[in-house]
Structures are given as structure tokens and as C-alpha cells.
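testing teh design pipeline on a random one, pls ignore if ur not involved
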């Protein structure tokens, strides 16, 4: 084991040195101006206070998904880390003990002893678990998943993941299929607890007034998906002139680019257009949602939700947020990171990007969605309570 740690650390160091010029270059971009200095140079990224309950979540969606667990953790003991800018914005709302997780090599200098470490989904970093465990923490992988698409890649270096799982005390998997795949990679003490994202689905923070006509919300869209949605909306608009469209890009840095795209369509079609940060009335033909945290309020009043992230090979996004309102949901075919969520929801219409125009023209034929899968996080809560 000591030999493995030695070589793993050497490889991590070589990768760090090789990446330095690119890291310095990316630091100049607004998207990474805070995260890269914090993660790779420990700039303004002091260690977490010791002896707490530490939860690490990678992205914005995962950072929100952990909220059902936070009510069981005293605020003085809560420690949170993440790796993305949007994830950091979310965890900062929960505690001052929020940090960017440093690059693995820097954990030797940065990490302090904690009571327990809970890592969300698929953040399988060897030194993270090894060092936390060596410093006395119980280590858990929660909401663990292993997609059908990723699994063959993991199998090719199974011996590495066997080492990683040897440092994880227990694994709480989303599905039975995830459990079986993780066990074949070396995971021990694997329990199927369901997907935490079903445990406490985000609720609206305000009640919005629904505009007249059918309201279509394109949520968490990515590059190339907005143009698909606009083409489909054009066809719907020709049949239902009072239809309205909301577009909510997944990443804030794309707001301006999407704005330019929408302006081009609205000029040609003579549609009205507004940005949500300027006017929340939703009376225009198209509204761009250019702020975070608004999507759940918009889903609550939408008739049809076009769920982004699956019309391009990205992996999809959480459909449960829209399904709780019984929205008619349309998704692309590339939802491979959300298969567990989709399996727990009835009524999602899956279409190829070529058929989105055809399907959106007839919204009355679309079924309403309904959540039917439950989750049990009681054992994870018990792990936290035992660590207190």
C-alpha cells in the first residue's frame, strides 16, 4: 500500500507540474478566476476547522442535493467543500466553513482531522479518502452512482479503484445496478438507499403569476440546445400565437451569448423579448433567465418543460424538480447521468433533437409527469449522528 501511495503521489505531482501553464492561463478567465487559484494554489483557501462533519459535493446540483442532510448537523460542526464556482456559491449559503477542495497533492498540507467525510456521487479521489481516514475520519461515498456509459472506462483501471474503495468505509448507492457495478470495482459495505435528490426536492421560493397562453420552459440548456428550442418554439408559435418561451441556460457565463442568439430570432420573427433580471413579468414572447435560483419558481407555473443537457451528449439534468409539479417534460436522448432519476418518474417524453420540433407542436398529446420512486436516507443520517 505504501508503494502505491508513493507512485500515486509522484504521478499527481507530475500532472500538477505539467498543468501549471494551462492553470495560469485559465485563471485569466472570469469563470475560473477564483476556483483555480483556490484549488491549485490555495489562494484565499484556508483549511477547514478540525473535528467537524465534512461533506464534499462537486457541482451546483449536488450541493443542493445535500440539503436534507444539513438539518441533522449542528452549524458549528458543518464543513462543506466543492470544486465548481456555482457549487461554491451554493455551499456558501450554508456555512462560513465552505471551501474549494484543493487539488489532491495539496491535501497533504491543507487537510485537518474531521469526524466524518461524506463524498457525493462519483468524486473518487484516492488521497482525499486516504488522508481523511488516516486523520481519523470515517469515510463514506453517498448517493453513489456508476453509469452504464462510464462503467467500462472504470473497469479498465479496476486495480486503481480497488485501492480507492479500500479507503472508503461504506457506500450508499442510488440503485441496485449502481451497487453491482461499484462492488465489481472493489466497493465494500454497499447499501442501496436511493437518490438523495428525491429526498428533499427544491420547493418554490416565491409564487409567480402565470402569463396567458401555453408556457414552455427550457431549463438548464447547454451549447447548441437553445437554437433547437427556438426552432421548435417557432413551429409551436405558428399554431398557438399566445405561446410563450422561457430559456434558462445552465451556466451563467453563457447568458450573453444566448442573449445574442435570442435577439437574432426575435428580430426575424418580430417577437417581444425580455431579460428576467430587468423584468419579471413574463409577458414577452421569450424571456431569458439570466440569474440563478429562479428555475424552480418557473417550473411551478410552466405547462411544458424542455429539459436541457440531453439533446447534446452531456448527460441530462434533474427532472424531479419539474416533475413534482406534474409538468409535461420533454428530454433528449442523452440523459445517461440521470437514468436513476428518470427511472423514478413517469411521463417523461424522450425525443431525438431532430424530432423536438414535431413533438412540441402538439403539447396536448404529451403526458403529465409524476414522481414514483422513494428514497431512504435514514442510514446516512444515522452515520452522521453516530459521528457527532
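output:
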Amino acid at each position: 500500500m505504501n508503494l502505491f501511495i508513493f507512485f500515486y503521489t509522484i504521478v499527481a505531482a507530475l500532472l500538477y507540474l505539467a498543468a501549471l501553464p494551462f492553470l495560469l492561463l485559465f485563471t485569466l478567465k472570469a469563470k475560473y478566476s477564483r476556483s483555480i487559484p483556490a484549488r491549485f494554489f490555495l489562494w484565499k483557501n484556508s483549511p477547514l476547522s478540525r473535528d467537524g462533519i465534512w461533506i464534499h459535493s462537486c457541482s451546483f446540483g449536488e450541493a443542493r442535493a445535500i440539503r436534507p442532510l444539513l438539518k441533522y448537523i449542528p452549524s458549528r460542526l458543518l464543513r462543506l467543500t466543492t470544486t465548481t464556482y456555482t457549487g461554491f456559491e451554493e455551499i456558501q449559503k450554508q456555512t462560513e466553513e465552505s471551501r474549494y477542495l484543493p487539488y489532491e497533492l495539496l491535501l497533504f498540507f491543507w487537510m485537518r482531522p474531521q469526524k466524518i467525510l461524506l463524498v457525493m456521487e462519483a468524486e473518487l479521489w484516492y488521497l482525499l479518502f486516504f488522508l481523511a481516514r488516516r486523520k481519523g475520519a470515517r469515510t463514506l461515498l453517498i448517493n453513489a452512482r456508476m453509469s452504464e456509459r462510464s462503467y467500462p472506462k472504470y473497469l479498465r483501471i479496476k486495480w486503481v479503484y480497488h485501492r480507492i474503495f479500500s479507503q472508503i468505509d461504506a457506500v450508499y448507492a442510488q440503485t441496485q445496478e449502481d451497487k453491482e457495478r461499484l462492488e465489481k470495482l472493489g466497493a465494500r459495505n454497499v447499501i442501496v438507499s436511493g437518490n438523495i435528490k428525491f429526498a428533499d426536492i427544491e420547493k418554490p421560493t416565491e409564487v409567480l403569476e402565470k402569463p396567458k397562453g401555453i408556457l414552455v420552459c427550457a431549463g438548464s440548456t447547454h451549447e447548441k440546445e437553445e437554437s433547437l428550442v427556438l426552432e421548435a418554439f417557432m413551429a409551436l408559435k405558428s399554431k398557438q400565437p399566445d405561446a410563450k418561451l422561457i430559456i434558462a441556460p445552465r451556466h451563467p457565463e453563457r447568458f450573453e451569448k444566448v442573449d445574442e442568439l435570442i435577439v437574432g430570432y426575435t428580430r426575424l420573427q418580430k417577437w417581444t423579448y425580455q431579460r428576467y433580471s430587468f423584468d419579471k413579468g413574463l409577458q414577452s414572447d421569450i424571456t431569458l433567465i439570466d440569474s440563478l435560483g429562479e428555475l424552480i419558481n418557473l417550473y411551478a407555473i410552466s405547462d411544458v418543460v424542455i429539459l436541457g443537457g440531453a439533446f447534446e451528449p452531456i448527460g441530462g439534468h434533474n427532472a424531479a424538480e419539474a416533475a413534482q409539479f406534474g409538468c409535461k417534460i420533454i428530454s433528449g436522448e442523452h440523459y445517461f447521468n440521470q437514468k436513476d432519476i428518470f427511472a423514478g418518474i413517469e411521463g417523461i417524453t424522450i425525443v431525438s433533437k431532430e424530432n423536438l420540433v414535431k413533438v412540441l407542436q402538439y403539447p396536448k398529446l404529451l403526458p403529465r409527469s409524476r414522481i414514483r420512486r422513494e428514497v431512504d436516507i435514514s442510514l446516512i443520517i444515522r452515520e452522521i449522528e453516530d459521528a457527532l
